[in-house]
Structure formats: C-alpha cells, structure tokens
Amino acid sequence: MTEVEANHNSPVFLNRFIETFFFFGSYFDCLDARMKRDDPNRIAAEAIFFGQGTKSVLATNGEERTMRNVKIDVWRSYFARFGMVEAELSTASLYHADLVAKKFS
C-alpha cells in the first residue's frame, strides 16, 4: 500500500508531465534495481499499473481520467473542512509496519 505524494491533477499539461515523469520514473528505477526485465510480475506492473496510470494522467481528461493524485496539503485542507484532524500512528501500527518491512528486506 502506498500513499501518493504527487500532483497529477494540474490543469497545465507540462506540470502533469513533469510530475508523472518523476513519479513513475522512480517506480521504474526500483523495478529495474530489484527485478529482471523478463519477470512476469514486473511486466504486469509496468503494463497495468504504470502504463495505464501514465496514460490516465497524460492522455485523458474529465470522467475518463482514473488517476487524480494531489499533494498532502490539498488533503489536509479538504478534511479540515469536515472537522477532521490528523492523528499520530499508534505504537502498535508502527511496530506492525516495521515487522512487514523486515519481512521483505
């Protein structure tokens, strides 16, 4: 599970392109460092998630667009309108996240 910290919702194409280039580029770099190019899981991730995500951000508008990531400050102001406030993660949550991370390292 990931929480995206990118602005893929700019009305300016060049801004969306730059954000998308760096965002998906980092994923491709990670895959390149850890997986063989012919790995079926890598091929599926590149085609389904990254390929469709890039197409959604750069080549579609309106209802056709399925990916509209925004930065955390946008979410903070949105939730604040409904009286929601941020909360620290519990110690148990942090411990669990650490266990999961160690399992895959």
Automatic annotation (TrEMBL):
<feature type="region of interest" description="SAW">
    <location>
        <begin position="59"/>
        <end position="105"/>
    </location>
</feature>
<dbReference type="Pfam" id="PF03514">
    <property type="entry name" value="GRAS"/>
</dbReference>
<dbReference type="InterPro" id="IPR005202">
    <property type="entry name" value="TF_GRAS"/>
</dbReference>
<keyword id="KW-0804">Transcription</keyword>
<protein>
    <submittedName>
        <fullName>Uncharacterized protein</fullName>
    </submittedName>
</protein>
<keyword id="KW-0805">Transcription regulation</keyword>
<comment type="similarity">
    <text>Belongs to the GRAS family.</text>
</comment>
<dbReference type="GO" id="GO:0005634">
    <property type="term" value="C:nucleus"/>
</dbReference>
<keyword id="KW-0539">Nucleus</keyword>
